[in-house]
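Form 12-C: Joint structure prediction
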Amino acid sequence: MSLENLPPVPPEPVPTGLAGRCPRCGKGGLFDGFLKLKPACPVCGLDFGFADSADGPAFFAMTFIGFLVAGAAVIVELAYTPPFWLHIVLWLPLILLLALILLRPLKGLAIALQYAHRAKEGEIDRDAP
Ligand SMILES: [Zn+2]
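Section 2 - Result
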């Protein structure tokens, strides 16, 4: 696909990002591994050098998983008062599983939103009044 064949309307960033697709064409894959990005889109050639999600996806995954697991642990503790080892057996695998499930879509979402909003590093305009 060349630039002339791009869709007339850019793809929606949320479903495109969650699916791990290119934010410009919505067709090419974003990832070259679990979390590593491809250097460019194999379909439209968009250079993914602009993409820098930093620790945003990890922060949102950690926050969501933390509230979910902590709430579930409190509910289970109050309802059944299980031994401590059972908490570890229950919640540690759940934390790992949810982190593995959430990190990739959240990284794709962060990059798609970064592209859609043309987000970049802040600059100081010294000529501004
Ligand atoms: Zn593309």
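Section 3 - Comments
The chain has one domain: 3-116. The mean pLDDT is 92.
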